[in-house]
Amino acid sequence: MSRDEPQPRTQDTTDFGYEQVPVGEKARRVRAVFESVASNYDLMNDLMSGGAHRLWKRFTLAQSGLRPGQRALDVAGGTGDLAAGMAAQVGPTGTVLLTDINHAMLSRGRDAMIDRGYVANVRFAIANAERLPFPDASFDCVTIGFGLRNVTDKAAALRSMTRVLKPGGQLLVLEFSHPVLPGLKPIYDAYSFSVLPWLGKVVAKDEASYRYLAESIRRFPKQDELLGMMQDAGLEHCRYHNLTGGIVALHRGYRL
Length: 256
Prior knowledge:
Elements: E1 13-16, E2 19-22, H1 26-37, H2 41-49, H3 52-62, E3 71-75, H4 81-90, E4 95-100, H5 103-116, E5 122-126, E6 139-145, H6 154-163, E7 165-176, H7 184-204, H8 207-219, H9 223-232, E8 236-243, E9 248-254
Parallel strand pairs: 3-4, 3-6, 4-5, 6-7
Antiparallel strand pairs: 1-2, 7-9, 8-9
Helix pairs in contact: 2-7, 3-4, 7-8
């Protein structure tokens, strides 16, 4: 089987890029990826997307509907771009909780929040998206940006994030998706499987992690499939916005 072809799923395995690994092993391998890339994470995001990730996150924040005094949760928040934006939205009387399962990434996020001047209204916690350790109906908005793709049990994570939303609260899922613009897919594939690993090798000294990135995107549910998963998790009024021709999509749903 070619290294560029995904291995078939089995009952006891899950995707790690195109490779199939035991279900219990994926979290450890994803953790290793992000421990490796944490120090270059923001730089690589700018290089890989040509800065477009900032526009995608700005659009996401514009859809949050957050108001001063409210509470927000950023799951798998990494270095905290979405958390910082929500901290500005909820203001000094509100609270944003930035979480990640990876200690190295959360440490980078905490340092980034301090550098941005967000201290009083931001909290930090190590947390697994599949089993969020927060009470039901705790948050007005929950976001996960480019993190759901790395979760082992995505349905469980969607249920967990829905559970902690207050009635009327919104879940925002920003994630790499599948191109819908005619002619874009072959260009995107060529970029993903040649340029991304090369950038990883040259800048982050880690080609394998960025090959995993490209492969994990291809294994992620398509837009309509993810929409159905959000509905199955108990969210209502679900919809999505394709960004940059579908390279990225923002999915939204509410807990009623």
